[in-house]
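I had to read the description of the data format several times before I understood it. In essence, backbone conformation is discretised, so a fold becomes a row of integers matching the chain in length. I therefore recommend that a typical entry be quoted early in the introduction. For illustration, here is how one protein appears when written out as sequence plus structure tokens.

***
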Amino acid sequence: GHPVLSSLEGFAGLSSIGGTFMIGFSTSPDNQSNYSTSYLMNLSGLDALTHAGAIHIDANPQLVSLQGLNQLTTVTNYIHLADNPRLENLQALANLTTVSTFSLQGNTRLRNLQGLEQVRNLDYLTIKGRVSTTPETPAAEGLNSLTGIESAGSIKHLNLTGNPLQDRSALNNV
């Protein structure tokens, strides 16, 4: 079997990560298969983290919340959240003010960007939905509102694809 991460409690007290914090996705040693290494429901244990160089959270089938990142204020490079099918909101990022690139892809339960209200001046915002091909799910899943980025100030590069966006009014002042 593959090693599985079920808790981040060992990181309690960690306040800064100079490089990239990456969790969830891995490739087998023979490069033949991809698998998730995480059964985390949230990110509790990172409660003291205020700064990171980058955050990459990918392919976490149980992740419902980013709870644990509540003190995070600065990410020097990027935040990439991809293929976390149960992730419901970004509320734990409410203290985040600085990030250069924010990327969301295939987080099918995420409906808006609430939690990003304090972020200013993004260089890149990329939001890609997942187009479903199964009869049990809608034709497109994902974000239907950009609520949460109304105060961004500026977004230099914006890429929105594969989302059933119904409300783009948050872009009016950006």
